[in-house]
Amino acid sequence: MKKLSARRRHPLAAVVVLLLALAATGGLYAAFAPAGTAKADETAQSLAIEEGKKLYSVGCASCHGTGGQGTSDGPSLVGVGSASVDFQVGTGRMPAQQPGAQVPKKKVIYSQAEIDQLAAYVASLGAGPITPTDSQVDPAGADVAKGGELFRTNCAQCHNFTGEGGALTHGKYAPSLEGVSPKHLYEAMQTGPQNMPSFPDTTMPEKEKKDIIAYVQAVNGEKTVSPGGLSLGGLGPVSEGLFAWVFGLGALIAVAIWVAAHTAKAKKS
Known about the structure:
Elements: H1 2-8, H2 13-32, H3 35-59, H4 61-64, H5 81-90, H6 112-125, H7 134-137, H8 144-154, H9 156-159, E1 166-167, E2 173-174, H10 182-191, H11 206-219, H12 237-268
Antiparallel strand pairs: 1-2
C-alpha cells in the first residue's frame, strides 16, 4: 500500500493517467465512429469524378479543353462549380449546338445521374458555387411580397415584371422564367449564366433567393385570362396606353378619313 501511495504522488502520475485516458478515448472512437460510411462516401465521390471525366472528354472537351482550361470556342470551367454545370446541362443549354450571341434552352440529353457526375468532375477542377439542396430551394414559407420587391429591383429590367422575358442588345435576350424549376432559378442567381449578373449568398442571402423563387412561382403559376384582353407582355399601363394611342386613335383617324372621303364624293355626285 505504501508503494502504491508513493506512485500516486509521483510527479508523472497525472501525465500517465492523462495519456491512458486519451488512448482509451481514441480506441473507443475508432471502434464506434462511422469510418466505413465516410470511406464509402469518399469512394463514391471518386467514382463520380472518374465517370464525369469520361463524359466530359466526349461531350465537353472539344470546346472547353481537355482539362477545363478553356479554348477559343469555350470559356474555362475552372472554378465555375457544380451549380453552374447542373444549370447549364440540366436546362439543355450545354452541350451547345453552335456558338452564338446566346445559347438557348433545349432538350436535355443527359440523365440527372450523368449531370451529377459531370458536375462532380468540374467541381474537382476548382472550388465554385455548389449545387443547392432541396431544402435550400424550397420556397415554402417564403415572403412573396418581399420577393416581388427584390425581383422588380434586380430582375425586372431584363426579365419583365412577371418573368416573361425580353429582348436585349446584339441578339441577346432574357429568357422567360415560366416553368423553370426552383433549383434552376436558384442556380441561375448563384452563378449568373451568360448575360445575367451573379448573386452569391454574400450579395443575396439564401432567404432572399427563396423569396424571389416564391414570387416567380406566384406570377407564373396558374395562367388566367387578362381582364383587359391581351396581356401585352405584362408591362402594365405603359404598354396598354401605347396600344390605345396607336391602334385606338389610329382607328378613329381612319374612320374620320373614310367619312370625309365619302361625304365629299356624295357632294360631287
